[in-house]
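Narrative of accomplishments. A recurring question from our advisory board has been how the design workflow behaves on a single, concrete structure rather than in aggregate. To address it, we present the structure tokens for one chain from the evaluation set, followed by the sequence designed for it. No filtering or post-editing was applied between the two.
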């Protein structure tokens, strides 16, 4: 029997429709939504699959105080999941592709409409009837926006309950399109030969364009230059913390391979460098993280920022370490952390790194098929990677040697407990974390020793 699974945003939609839409705009934002009241949450924690008692709305995306909303693959179904009872209402919606945004008054969702060779991306919203036990009234859904599919095939459409934001090609250039949901009208955007949306905050949209890395205030003509054109061309990684109005980016520094992580605070326009790779290399050497392999020198290791995680008052940086260019290569994944307010230095995440560590007995030579599709002889000193943080939970994707498969696992910071997650544990709620992109186990498997997904 063909198993039904829930939509994991990002595997398909990252290319076709609504990339990043919904989960990026999480958290309490009552004054920022079209209805004036919203609780869309931060993320779903591992212990909150079926919450009972204490309100955990701060731990969710795509939800209001009563329900969590998601879509299902290939069924054209929008599901309303009661967070307390676990009961679900299944609502057929023709062409539905993704949840965009949820607050206590509305559920925004995307629909792809096709007529022959033409297609349109549509944003709809349906009201939540609080007087009827918070049930979604799909019969009162209204069309918010239509975008011609041919003219915007590769664009990302972002929604935060106040604005719908995307880019569109026009006369050989790209235009930033801004639609004010409250006023139901377009506002002036920007036009640039190169233009990409990095994130939408409550009051601002961050873009990269010909001028550089730019903050445009929504509802006004104010534009702040964060990085000029030369620096913009060196940006290799970005991450947004919408809840705390902060933007992070990794900047290539040239031939020295000394890339640096920067932070921009939208409230006061302050920029600061959080680290560069030369500093990280010295820290790793001090912790002995570059010395326990057969590579000739610690300077021979390549160090890359794999991901940045935000949990409460802490930042977590995950690094992918490649040992030299000899064959076989050693590969390792480690995590470090520090307090966001700068009151602490970067520290070794002992518990997480212990779970990521591949026991020496299992560090055999693998002929690994990499993400780029070629075979590489490698020795993996790690058995996987952290894929996201949520509340008090660290979620990992690891090789489970006992079961001979790759599997999701969780570590609880409060209790110090680790457990392997079953499909029933993670299948419906993992796609709705704060990132809004979900998980792609095929890509994540690059960081685990075996190619179980490809067998």
């Amino acid at each position: 029997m063909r198993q039904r699974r829930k939509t994991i945003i990002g595997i398909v939609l990252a290319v076709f429709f609504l990339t990043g839409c919904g989960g990026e705009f999480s958290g309490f934002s009552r004054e920022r939504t079209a209805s004036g009241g919203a609780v869309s949450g931060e993320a779903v924690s591992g212990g909150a699959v079926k919450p009972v008692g204490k309100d955990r709305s701060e731990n969710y995306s795509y939800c209001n105080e009563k329900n969590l909303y998601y879509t299902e693959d290939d069924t054209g179904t929008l599901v309303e999941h009661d967070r307390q009872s676990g009961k679900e209402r299944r609502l057929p919606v023709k062409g539905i592709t993704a949840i965009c945004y949820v607050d206590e008054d509305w559920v925004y969702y995307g629909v792809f409409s096709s007529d022959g060779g033409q297609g349109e991306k549509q944003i709809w919203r349906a009201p939540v009837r609080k007087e009827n036990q918070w049930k979604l009234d799909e019969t009162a859904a209204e069309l918010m926006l239509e975008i011609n599919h041919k003219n915007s095939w590769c664009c990302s459409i972002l929604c935060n309950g106040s604005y719908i934001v995307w880019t569109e090609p026009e006369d050989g250039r790209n235009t930033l399109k801004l639609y004010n949901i409250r006023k139901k009208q377009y506002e002036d955007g920007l036009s640039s030969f190169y233009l990409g949306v990095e994130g939408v905050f409550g009051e601002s949209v961050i873009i990269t364009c010909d001028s550089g890395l730019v903050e445009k205030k929504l509802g006004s003509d104010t534009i702040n230059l964060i990085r000029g054109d030369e620096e913009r061309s060196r940006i290799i990684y970005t991450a947004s913390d919408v809840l705390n109005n902060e933007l992070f980016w990794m900047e290539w520094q040239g031939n020295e391979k000394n890339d640096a992580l920067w932070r921009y605070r939208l409230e006061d326009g302050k920029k600061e460098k959080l680290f560069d790779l030369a500093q990280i290399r010295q820290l790793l050497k001090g912790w002995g993280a570059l010395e326990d392999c057969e590579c000739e020198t610690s300077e021979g290791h390549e160090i890359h920022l794999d991901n940045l995680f935000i949990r409460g008052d802490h930042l977590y940086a995950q690094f992918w370490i490649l040992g030299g260019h000899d064959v076989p290569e050693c590969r390792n994944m480690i995590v470090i952390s520090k307090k966001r307010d700068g009151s602490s230095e970067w520290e070794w995440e002992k518990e997480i790194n212990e779970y990521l560590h591949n026991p020496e007995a299992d560090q055999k030579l693998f002929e690994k098929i990499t993400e780029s599709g070629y075979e590489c002889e490698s020795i993996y000193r790690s058995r996987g990677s952290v894929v996201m943080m949520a509340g008090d939970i660290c979620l990992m994707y690891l090789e489970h040697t006992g079961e001979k498969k790759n599997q999701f696992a969780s570590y609880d910071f409060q209790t110090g407990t680790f457990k392997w997650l079953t499909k029933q544990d993670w299948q419906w709620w993992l796609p709705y974390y704060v990132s809004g992109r979900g998980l792609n186990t095929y890509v994540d498997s690059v960081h685990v020793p075996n190619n179980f997904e490809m067998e």
